[in-house]
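Exercise 3.2. Students should predict the tertiary structure of the chain below and write it as C-alpha coordinates, then compare their answer with the key that follows.

Predict this chain's 3D structure.
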Amino acid sequence: MLSIIIPTLNCRDDLAHTLEAFSLRPAEWEIVVSDGGSEDGTVEMAELAKVRTLIGNRGRGRQLSAGARAAHGHWYLFWHADTQPQPGWAALVERFIKNPDNDFHVAYFMLALNDPDPAARRVESLANWRAQNLSLPYGDQGLLISANYYDHLGGYKNLDLMEDVDLVRRIGSKRLHALPSAAVTSAVKYRRDGWWARPIKNVTCLCLYLLGAPISMITTLYR
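Answer key:
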Protein backbone atom coordinates (compact mmCIF):
# COMPACT_ATOMS: atom_id res chain seq x y z
CA MET A 1 0.00 0.00 0.00
CA LEU A 2 1.15 3.52 -0.83
CA SER A 3 0.40 6.69 1.13
CA ILE A 4 0.56 9.95 -0.85
CA ILE A 5 1.36 12.66 1.71
CA ILE A 6 0.64 16.27 0.77
CA PRO A 7 1.42 19.26 3.04
CA THR A 8 -0.97 22.15 2.49
CA LEU A 9 -1.39 25.79 3.45
CA ASN A 10 -3.99 28.01 1.75
CA CYS A 11 -3.80 26.18 -1.57
CA ARG A 12 -7.38 25.07 -2.20
CA ASP A 13 -7.39 25.46 -5.99
CA ASP A 14 -3.96 23.90 -6.49
CA LEU A 15 -4.86 21.00 -4.24
CA ALA A 16 -8.10 20.41 -6.14
CA HIS A 17 -6.17 19.98 -9.41
CA THR A 18 -3.63 17.70 -7.73
CA LEU A 19 -6.28 15.49 -6.13
CA GLU A 20 -7.98 15.19 -9.50
CA ALA A 21 -4.68 14.10 -11.09
CA PHE A 22 -4.23 11.51 -8.34
CA SER A 23 -7.77 10.16 -8.72
CA LEU A 24 -6.51 7.58 -11.26
CA ARG A 25 -4.64 5.47 -8.75
CA PRO A 26 -5.08 1.97 -7.31
CA ALA A 27 -7.99 1.93 -4.87
CA GLU A 28 -5.81 0.83 -1.93
CA TRP A 29 -3.48 3.83 -2.27
CA GLU A 30 -4.45 6.49 0.24
CA ILE A 31 -3.95 10.25 0.24
CA VAL A 32 -3.08 12.06 3.47
CA VAL A 33 -3.40 15.86 3.47
CA SER A 34 -1.40 17.43 6.30
CA ASP A 35 -2.60 21.01 6.72
CA GLY A 36 -0.81 23.80 8.54
CA GLY A 37 -3.81 25.99 9.36
CA SER A 38 -5.36 26.98 6.04
CA GLU A 39 -8.03 29.69 6.03
CA ASP A 40 -9.15 29.48 2.39
CA GLY A 41 -11.23 26.31 2.42
CA THR A 42 -8.36 23.93 1.67
CA VAL A 43 -9.29 21.58 4.51
CA GLU A 44 -12.99 21.60 3.66
CA MET A 45 -12.25 20.83 0.01
CA ALA A 46 -9.95 17.94 0.98
CA GLU A 47 -12.61 16.52 3.27
CA LEU A 48 -15.22 16.75 0.51
CA ALA A 49 -12.79 14.85 -1.72
CA LYS A 50 -12.83 12.12 0.94
CA VAL A 51 -9.10 12.07 1.61
CA ARG A 52 -7.62 11.76 5.09
CA THR A 53 -6.97 15.23 6.50
CA LEU A 54 -4.83 16.31 9.45
CA ILE A 55 -4.59 19.77 10.95
CA GLY A 56 -1.42 20.68 12.83
CA ASN A 57 1.34 23.22 13.23
CA ARG A 58 2.54 25.18 10.23
CA GLY A 59 5.91 24.29 8.69
CA ARG A 60 6.48 21.91 5.81
CA GLY A 61 8.89 19.66 7.72
CA ARG A 62 6.45 19.35 10.63
CA GLN A 63 3.51 18.73 8.30
CA LEU A 64 5.34 16.05 6.30
CA SER A 65 6.42 14.36 9.51
CA ALA A 66 2.87 14.42 10.87
CA GLY A 67 1.53 13.01 7.60
CA ALA A 68 4.00 10.12 7.73
CA ARG A 69 3.06 9.31 11.32
CA ALA A 70 -0.61 9.11 10.33
CA ALA A 71 -0.04 7.15 7.11
CA HIS A 72 -0.96 3.48 6.77
CA GLY A 73 1.15 2.65 3.72
CA HIS A 74 4.28 0.55 3.48
CA TRP A 75 5.55 3.19 1.03
CA TYR A 76 5.28 6.98 1.10
CA LEU A 77 5.08 9.42 -1.79
CA PHE A 78 5.70 12.92 -0.44
CA TRP A 79 4.18 15.46 -2.81
CA HIS A 80 3.54 19.21 -3.08
CA ALA A 81 0.00 20.54 -3.42
CA ASP A 82 0.79 22.67 -6.49
CA THR A 83 2.28 19.76 -8.46
CA GLN A 84 0.55 17.24 -10.71
CA PRO A 85 1.84 13.86 -11.93
CA GLN A 86 1.77 13.00 -15.63
CA PRO A 87 -0.23 10.11 -17.12
CA GLY A 88 1.48 6.81 -16.45
CA TRP A 89 2.87 7.89 -13.09
CA ALA A 90 1.08 5.14 -11.14
CA ALA A 91 2.56 2.32 -13.23
CA LEU A 92 6.06 3.70 -12.70
CA VAL A 93 5.54 3.99 -8.96
CA GLU A 94 4.03 0.52 -8.74
CA ARG A 95 6.95 -0.99 -10.65
CA PHE A 96 9.45 0.71 -8.34
CA ILE A 97 7.80 -0.30 -5.08
CA LYS A 98 7.21 -3.90 -6.15
CA ASN A 99 10.94 -4.42 -6.69
CA PRO A 100 12.32 -5.75 -3.39
CA ASP A 101 15.75 -4.36 -4.28
CA ASN A 102 14.29 -0.86 -3.85
CA ASP A 103 13.26 -1.22 -0.21
CA PHE A 104 16.20 0.96 0.81
CA HIS A 105 16.26 3.10 -2.33
CA VAL A 106 14.36 6.29 -3.13
CA ALA A 107 12.84 7.64 -6.35
CA TYR A 108 11.92 11.11 -7.52
CA PHE A 109 10.39 12.64 -10.65
CA MET A 110 11.91 15.00 -13.19
CA LEU A 111 10.80 18.62 -12.79
CA ALA A 112 8.55 20.37 -15.31
CA LEU A 113 6.87 23.78 -15.01
CA ASN A 114 3.37 24.55 -16.29
CA ASP A 115 4.44 27.53 -18.38
CA PRO A 116 5.28 27.70 -22.12
CA ASP A 117 7.92 30.42 -21.62
CA PRO A 118 11.38 29.31 -22.85
CA ALA A 119 12.72 30.54 -19.51
CA ALA A 120 10.77 27.73 -17.86
CA ARG A 121 12.71 25.18 -19.90
CA ARG A 122 15.96 26.71 -18.61
CA VAL A 123 14.80 26.43 -15.01
CA GLU A 124 13.73 22.82 -15.58
CA SER A 125 17.10 21.93 -17.11
CA LEU A 126 19.01 23.45 -14.21
CA ALA A 127 16.80 21.76 -11.62
CA ASN A 128 17.08 18.35 -13.26
CA TRP A 129 20.84 18.77 -13.66
CA ARG A 130 21.09 19.58 -9.94
CA ALA A 131 19.02 16.54 -9.01
CA GLN A 132 20.96 14.11 -11.18
CA ASN A 133 24.49 15.45 -10.79
CA LEU A 134 24.43 16.84 -7.25
CA SER A 135 21.89 14.32 -5.90
CA LEU A 136 19.67 17.16 -4.68
CA PRO A 137 16.10 16.71 -5.91
CA TYR A 138 13.76 19.18 -4.23
CA GLY A 139 10.36 18.46 -2.72
CA ASP A 140 8.48 19.64 -5.81
CA GLN A 141 9.89 16.61 -7.62
CA GLY A 142 8.19 14.21 -5.23
CA LEU A 143 9.95 11.66 -3.05
CA LEU A 144 9.05 7.96 -3.12
CA ILE A 145 10.45 6.06 -0.13
CA SER A 146 9.58 2.93 1.84
CA ALA A 147 8.23 3.44 5.35
CA ASN A 148 11.02 1.22 6.70
CA TYR A 149 13.76 3.30 5.10
CA TYR A 150 12.08 6.56 6.07
CA ASP A 151 11.99 5.42 9.72
CA HIS A 152 15.59 4.18 9.48
CA LEU A 153 16.68 7.66 8.36
CA GLY A 154 14.75 9.37 11.12
CA GLY A 155 12.24 11.00 8.78
CA TYR A 156 11.76 14.69 8.10
CA LYS A 157 13.04 17.13 10.67
CA ASN A 158 10.79 19.91 11.96
CA LEU A 159 12.28 22.52 9.64
CA ASP A 160 10.43 25.44 8.06
CA LEU A 161 12.71 25.27 5.02
CA MET A 162 15.32 22.90 3.52
CA GLU A 163 13.56 19.87 4.97
CA ASP A 164 13.83 18.20 1.55
CA VAL A 165 17.56 18.93 1.19
CA ASP A 166 18.20 17.68 4.71
CA LEU A 167 16.53 14.34 3.98
CA VAL A 168 18.04 13.66 0.54
CA ARG A 169 21.53 14.38 1.89
CA ARG A 170 20.96 11.63 4.44
CA ILE A 171 19.81 9.31 1.67
CA GLY A 172 22.90 9.85 -0.47
CA SER A 173 23.51 9.69 -4.20
CA LYS A 174 23.78 5.89 -4.53
CA ARG A 175 20.22 5.35 -3.32
CA LEU A 176 18.48 8.11 -5.32
CA HIS A 177 16.86 7.27 -8.67
CA ALA A 178 15.09 9.48 -11.22
CA LEU A 179 11.82 8.15 -12.62
CA PRO A 180 11.22 8.70 -16.38
CA SER A 181 8.27 11.00 -15.83
CA ALA A 182 7.74 14.58 -14.74
CA ALA A 183 6.19 16.27 -11.75
CA VAL A 184 4.47 19.30 -13.30
CA THR A 185 4.83 22.16 -10.85
CA SER A 186 3.20 25.59 -10.74
CA ALA A 187 5.35 28.36 -12.20
CA VAL A 188 3.53 31.10 -10.28
CA LYS A 189 6.52 31.91 -8.05
CA TYR A 190 8.85 32.21 -11.05
CA ARG A 191 6.47 34.49 -12.93
CA ARG A 192 6.02 36.61 -9.80
CA ASP A 193 9.66 36.82 -8.68
CA GLY A 194 11.42 36.59 -12.05
CA TRP A 195 12.84 33.73 -14.12
CA TRP A 196 16.38 34.66 -13.09
CA ALA A 197 15.75 36.16 -9.65
CA ARG A 198 13.88 33.17 -8.24
CA PRO A 199 16.55 30.56 -9.13
CA ILE A 200 19.29 32.88 -7.83
CA LYS A 201 17.40 33.22 -4.54
CA ASN A 202 16.99 29.43 -4.34
CA VAL A 203 20.68 28.81 -4.98
CA THR A 204 21.62 31.45 -2.41
CA CYS A 205 19.41 29.80 0.21
CA LEU A 206 20.89 26.40 -0.60
CA CYS A 207 24.45 27.68 -0.29
CA LEU A 208 23.68 29.37 3.03
CA TYR A 209 22.17 26.14 4.32
CA LEU A 210 25.15 24.06 3.24
CA LEU A 211 27.44 26.59 4.93
CA GLY A 212 25.53 26.14 8.20
CA ALA A 213 23.54 29.38 8.33
CA PRO A 214 20.56 29.39 10.74
CA ILE A 215 17.31 28.16 9.18
CA SER A 216 15.50 31.22 10.59
CA MET A 217 17.78 33.55 8.60
CA ILE A 218 17.41 31.49 5.41
CA THR A 219 13.62 31.41 5.83
CA THR A 220 13.49 35.20 6.16
CA LEU A 221 15.50 35.59 2.96
CA TYR A 222 13.39 33.02 1.10
CA ARG A 223 10.09 34.62 2.02
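Discussion points: Strands lie at 2-8, 30-35, 52-55, 75-78, 83-85, 106-113, 143-146, 176-185. The mean pLDDT is 96.
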